[in-house]
Write a structure and sequence with these properties.
With about 1300 residues, this protein is mainly α. The protein is built from 65 helices and four strands. Helix content is about 60%, strand content about 0%. Interacts with CDK20, which promotes CDK20 stability and function. Interacts with FAM149B1; may play a role in cilium assembly.
Length: about 1300
């Protein structure tokens, strides 16, 4: 802009005036000056004619003439530095070039010059504003004429003024360029024409009518031998790809693809052969690779925008590509003489077929690709399969002939020559990537089987997957291949493993491809060989084994894959005849742990191999069904031994001395040992994912170390393990369901951290919130910020955990609490949030109402476990505390009347008081809601501050109990005629019981049920084969036991039982003493069968810690008859069913093995609850998944239900049916009933999983609508499928007599 004449100024004024006139309406309609500026700034987005304004064209031409050369040079530089992989996308390139340009000296000078020019022009316009307004129309006409006169201005003017250059590429100019591009023209003319074409604005070129002719001309010119001319054409194509719409770029792309197709089909061009290899410095190869690279770059970018255009455009691009890749030269030639096909060059530039991955990603393009592959270009798939087979065969040949040199599949950025073997390998990688992506999709798998020319049989999906699998351990190991800027493992095993991983993540694909016996057998082949120590074994490297284990671990993490490994396709879990994959993997892992495989002795990678295969086992034994299969191998013992050995090694590592040469080696050795030690602890910890596995973990003696390890990872917010989809919730809940697990959680600091975190959220607020940001007022009773901590406490505080954590401990009840005093244990939570019985406690809370409601909600959930309720009542008198708080919430009104103040706390206390003082199922008690109602009476439920409770909370339905069932009794008892043949009578009783339960279940209650139970158990125990426990002589009389004392929990339980019995009209006055005597007799009777044991667990120090809910239930069934109850208990104690219905029966029992006895874990948990989880996963998988997602376990809630005989969860008649069903039909029916309940609750469970309060729902809500009799047919089906396995395991709980 050195020469800026008055004519230039006038022309620029005219352009600017035209622009302002066109947007006049938009500007004048703006409400303010700022809005007008915004309209101008965003004019390109809102005005479709923006690029047609002369002023805009002028600016574009001005910028291009000033900065165009610099921008092109920078783009070429970036393109040349770009890697052969995916590389940065188009957006990244544009951003980089823009940044460099804006920071350049040329840009700053241009802006300065442009600013000066525009200041002159704008100042002139302002001075002539009034005159311009008067002559507006006339000037507009002159502007239009000026435009027309400029269209034919020579673009290559010799003048230095930019105003002598054109802003529109005319049709005549393009026609002239077409003539100059003719092959007959001199070289200089053609080069100049091509330069002119590249310099012209692409939009002007593409809008010309001769565009199609230009495309054809360019296709012909691509065959020109002149490299400079070719580069100019490719530069024009690249600009077109970058700046033009799809319908234009499509024509350029298809022209380029067609040119390459003709180039490869022509016999005149010098295309390299496999024998000669590819020298990328050869001029011909350079030009060929440039063309293929341009195609490939466009292939990777076009999927991001072709969905916005008609499908025909995309189809033309896809078809031209597949047509090019389907070219195959004469197949009769020897492999070494074979001319390289286009796909070799594409593979050189895009070895992992990223272009195909992007094309297959979206359904829009995937359907077109797959349709064309199926109908016209299946040869692309066939040749890819053929290449994989050829590479596998070459690997076999190398393996058999040790004199052959393995190919080096490695290179670096400066590599300039690719040998025959490297080319074959690169093509193999491309084929593998392409096939791997193809198999993910259903329609892609339908392209198989494929027929190969040199094979009789077709190659099926299974054949291909077996081939892939064998490539892992047949292909040679090789170092890393760095064809990109980032180091990446290009060894065959790594590449195949990567493909198989992706397939494992796609459920349908994995089911159709991987979860097949031949594929699994192929994975297990090297393990077979190593176990047998055959000659083939040493050829399988440690790296290959690690890859195999990684894929097997992913297979085992999916339900279908797990079942295939455990049972095979024939559903056979036997380890003797044709052992399944699980058995072989377990045997191999055990040998690895014991270092019993000589091939790997002294190998540095042995710990990695061990870890990889134990990881596969972990995927199996962390499930109930997997653990069931692997139990015989005692992997928990082997892993524990390995951990103890490694732990000793880590203690012996010498401390590095500063300045010593051995620092690095010692440091690396210690890191490896510590990593291996943590890996083993993690493997042991995963046993705790199931009830039976938790028992095995406890037996190893490493439970405390495992929980400490878990807490350390939890504190660092680390993932559980590679294949776990959820966090530590399930393991923590399993731990908390047992006394030994709760103690381990306490010792590790987990509970301390949980309580501290809760207090920080509840009382202190978050540390990362600025002081100026006020906390939002909680709307829900438990604020969302506290919900996670609340659920964690609910998961933690099962009765076994509660008793260990607070049993026989007083609350502090201090006279003063510091505001800085933070709770650290469960006792503190009870003291500070639940039992607020002093002003000091209330004043110590910043958020008294919210915190106390949190505590009351927690108390409500805890009291759903009746043993926990009795413990809290006996130790802390929570009921009296709540009644006293309600009394203090009374307001004196006129006339001496008193009324309760209705607020959040009083409503919550009222709900808890009703819950803890009334026993009954869903139809037997009415719990007041926690929410207020709309209207004049927001809370119609009466509050109270003393017992007894108002009658409105007692259900009217359950009061009407008809005791006159004489006709029903006679009718039913006539069906149970005693036969001389005892086995026949027992079977007949069971049949009649089932029929009665289906037809008229209501008569199985009262005296009928009592008499049936007496007769059935009496006759059953007369047959020694039906007895599980030996007979025990017991002769104590009432006088001997009257003076014995019961625990405070038992005493409160008696009162609760009698109160419930009187409500049911089955007990009379004086029943309290009788029940106390029954409990004292049963305690003494069981004490005769207990073993002496010393343990730090509270639950094992003396008598049974909870109340005997089974004896209480039986006392009610026997209508309060003490003698009948005791006789029945003595007989019943000999049956296997007693071990699972009557929990105190096996409390520190001498019949249990010592290790189980010392664990404090009841068979109801490690056997019954274990099988509940196992069957639930198979029978009601959605419910099982819901539990897993919630971090809660079926075992904990079922243990609670069973322990208290479903009191408060079922109505009395259903409790009777539950006990009767288990007694008559066997202990396994206890498991079936729990499965039926969870099946019944399926919709509610899924709903509450979504609302993230599943554990609260299951613990607080009664089982509405559930009737045992409704599920008899379903339970009989469960019996047919599972009884042999369940009864066999249930019978194995007793110590075997020698």
């Amino acid at each position: 802009m050195a020469h800026f004449s008055s004519e230039d100024e006038a022309r620029l004024q005219s352009m600017l005036r035209q622009l302002l006139q066109s947007v006049k309406e938009k500007i004048t309609g703006a409400p303010s000056l700022e809005c007008a500026e915004e309209i101008l700034l965003h004019l390109e987005e809102t005005d479709e004619n923006f690029h047609n304004y002369e002023f805009v064209k002028y600016l574009r031409q001005y910028i291009y003439s000033t900065l165009g050369t610099m921008i092109e040079e920078e783009m070429e530089k970036c393109t040349s530095d770009k890697n052969q992989g995916e590389g940065p996308g188009y957006d990244t390139l544009v951003q980089h070039v823009t940044k460099v340009t804006q920071e350049s000296k040329e840009y700053k000078e241009m802006m300065h010059s442009l600013k000066n020019i525009m200041m002159v022009v704008v100042e002139s316009l302002i001075n002539r504003f009034e005159e311009d307004q008067i002559r507006n129309k006339e000037m507009q006409k002159k502007t239009v004429k000026g435009k027309c006169s400029n269209y034919c201005t020579d673009n290559c003017s010799d003048s230095d003024s930019s105003f002598n250059q054109s802003y529109k590429f005319s049709q005549g100019k393009l026609q002239l360029l077409l003539e100059q591009l003719d092959p007959g023209q001199p070289k200089e003319v053609r080069l100049e024409a091509m330069q002119t074409l590249c310099s012209a604005p692409p939009s002007d070129v593409l809008n010309c009518e001769n565009w199609t002719t230009l495309c054809e001309k360019l296709t012909l010119c691509l065959s020109d031998p002149d490299p400079a001319f070719n580069d100019r054409i490719l530069k024009f194509c690249a600009q077109t790809f970058t700046l033009s719409p799809l319908h234009m770029t499509k024509e350029i792309y298809t022209s380029l693809a067609r040119h390459l197709e003709l180039y490869f089909l022509s016999g005149e061009n010098h295309i390299p052969t496999l024998l000669t290899g590819v020298d990328v410095t050869h001029p011909n190869v350079i030009h060929l690779l440039k063309k293929v690279r341009l195609l490939n770059e466009y292939q990777k970018e076009v999927p991001s925008f072709w969905i916005r255009h008609p499908e025909k455009y995309m189809e033309e691009i896809v078809e031209s590509t597949l047509s090019l890749l389907s070219i195959k030269h004469d197949q009769s030639l020897l492999v070494s003489q074979k001319i390289l096909d286009p796909i070799y060059f594409l593979a050189l530039l895009d070895i992992k077929a990223v272009w195909f991955k992007k094309w297959m990603h979206a359904y829009y393009s995937r359907t077109v690709v797959l349709r064309l592959l199926e109908k016209k270009y299946k040869s692309v798939i066939t040749t890819s399969v053929q290449q994989c087979i050829q590479y596998f065969e070459s690997c076999e040949n190398m393996r058999s002939d040790k004199n052959l040199i393995h190919p080096k599949h490695c290179g670096n950025k400066e590599k300039t020559f690719y040998s025959r073997q490297e080319l074959q390998y690169i093509y193999f990688v491309h084929s593998l990537s392409l096939l791997g992506r193809l198999l993910i999709y259903t329609q892609g798998r339908k392209l198989f089987p494929v027929k190969l020319n040199n094979r009789k049989d077709s190659v099926s999906l299974t054949d291909l997957l077996v081939l892939f699998t064998r490539l892992i351990y047949y292909s040679p190991s090789c170092p890393k291949m760095t064809v990109t800027a980032y180091e990446e493992d290009y060894s065959p095993a790594s590449l195949v493993t990567e493909v198989l991983w992706i397939m494992c993540d796609q459920k349908e694909c994995a089911t159709e491809c991987l979860f097949k016996s031949p594929v699994i057998d192929a994975f297990l082949e090297p393990i077979h060989n190593l176990m047998k120590e055959t000659e083939a074994a040493p050829n399988c490297s440690e790296t290959a084994l690690i890859h195999i284990a990684d894929v097997l671990a992913r297979i085992a993490s999916v339900r279908e894959g797990l079942f295939l490994l455990l049972y095979g396709e024939n559903m056979n879990s036997s380890k003797d005849e044709n052992p399944t994959g699980a058995h072989l993997i377990a045997q191999f892992s055990k040998k690895l742990l014991d270092e019993d495989i000589s091939v790997f002795s002294g190998s540095e990678m042995l710990p990695l191999v061990k870890g990889a295969f134990i990881s596969v086992c972990r995927q199996m034994y962390s499930t109930c069904e997997g653990l069931q299969v692997l139990i015989p191998y005692n992997l928990h013992d082997s892993i524990a031994k390995a951990w103890k050995k490694t732990s000793l090694l880590s203690e012996r590592i010498p401390t590095p001395v500063e300045g010593s040469d051995s620092i690095s080696s010692v440091s690396q050795e210690s890191q490896n040992i510590m990593a291996w030690e943590e890996n083993l602890l993690d493997d042991l910890l995963n046993f705790a994912a199931t009830p039976r596995g938790l028992l095995l973990l406890q037996k190893t003696g490493s439970i405390n170390d495992c929980v400490t390890f878990m807490f350390n990872r939890y504190a660092k917010k680390l993932q559980v393990s590679g294949h776990k989809k959820f966090g530590y919730g399930v393991i923590v809940t399993q731990m908390a369901s047992t006394a030994v697990g709760a103690v381990a959680l306490r010792n590790s600091g987990f509970i301390n951290a949980l309580v501290t975190e809760l207090w920080a959220i509840l009382e202190c607020g978050r540390d990362d919130v600025r002081v100026t940001h006020p906390r939002s007022t909680p709307v829900d009773p438990i604020d969302q910020s506290c919900q996670k901590s609340f659920l964690a406490l609910v998961n933690l505080l099962s009765y076994p955990a509660v008793y260990e954590l607070i049993g026989n401990q007083d609350i502090p009840n201090k006279s003063e609490y510091s505001l800085r005093e933070v709770p650290t244990c469960i006792i503190d939570i009870i003291d500070r949030l639940i039992i607020l019985n002093s002003e000091a406690k209330i004043r110590s809370l910043f958020n008294y109402e919210q915190s106390h409601i949190f505590g009351l909600r927690l108390l409500s959930v805890l009291c759903c476990d009746l043993d926990t309720l009795l413990l809290l009542e006996s130790q802390y008198q929570v009921s009296a505390m709540l009644l006293n708080a309600q009394e203090e919430n009374v307001l004196e009104i006129d006339g001496g009347q008193r009324d309760f103040i209705i607020d959040g706390l009083s409503v919550e206390r009222n709900h808890v008081l009703v819950r803890i003082n009334l026993i009954g199922g869903p139809l037997e008690r009415i719990l007041p809601p926690r929410a207020l109602q709309k209207g004049n009476d927001p809370y119609p439920w009466p509050m109270f501050s003393s017992c007894p409770l108002p009658n409105c909370y007692l259900s009217e339905i359950t009061k009407r109990v008809d005791l006159k069932q004489d006709n029903d009794i006679g009718k039913l008892l006539s069906l149970f005629k005693i036969s001389d043949k005892q086995p026949e009578w027992v079977e007949n009783c069971r049949v009649q019981f089932c029929q009665t339960m289906r037809a008229k279940p209501s008569i199985i209650s009262g005296e009928v049920l009592a008499e049936l139970l007496e007769k059935f158990v009496l006759n059953l125990t007369e047959n020694p084969s039906d007895c599980y426990f030996p007979a025990v002589e017991y002769k104590a009389i009432d006088a001997n036991v009257e003076n014995e004392s019961l625990s405070s929990v038992q005493q409160l339980g008696i009162k609760m039982t009698v109160r419930y019995g009187k409500f049911l009209n089955v007990l009379k006055d004086g029943a309290e003493n009788d029940l106390a005597l029954v409990l004292k007799h049963s305690e003494r009777f069981l004490k005769q069968q207990q073993a002496a044991i010393k343990s730090s667990l509270r639950c094992l120090q003396g008598r049974y810690s909870g109340h005997d809910w089974f004896v209480s239930s039986l006392f009610l069934i026997m209508l309060g008859d003490k003698e009948k109850t005791l006789i029945f208990l003595q007989k019943f104690s000999r049956l296997l069913t007693s071990a699972f219905l009557w929990l105190p029966r096996l409390h520190i029992s001498k019949y249990l093995p010592t290790d189980i006895l010392e664990s404090g874990i009841h068979p109801i948990y490690f056997c019954g609850a274990h099988y509940i989880e196992m069957l639930l996963k198979t029978e009601v998988p959605l419910v099982f998944s819901a539990f897993h997602m919630s971090g809660f376990t079926p075992s904990q809630i079922c243990q609670q239900w069973i322990t208290q005989c479903f009191w408060n969860y079922l109505d009395w008649i259903e409790i009777c049916h539950y006990i009767a069903t288990c007694v008559f039909l066997g202990p396994d029916y206890q498991i079936y009933i729990c499965i039926c309940i969870l099946k019944h609750l399926q919709q509610d469970i899924l709903k509450h999983t979504q609302s993230q309060d599943l554990q609260v729902f299951l613990k607080e809500k009664a089982l509405h609508g559930f009737r045992v009799s409704d599920y008899f047919e379903y339970m009989e089906n469960l019996e047919q499928n599972y009884r042999p396995m369940l009864l066999q395991d249930m019978k194995s709980i007793r110590v075997q007599s020698t």
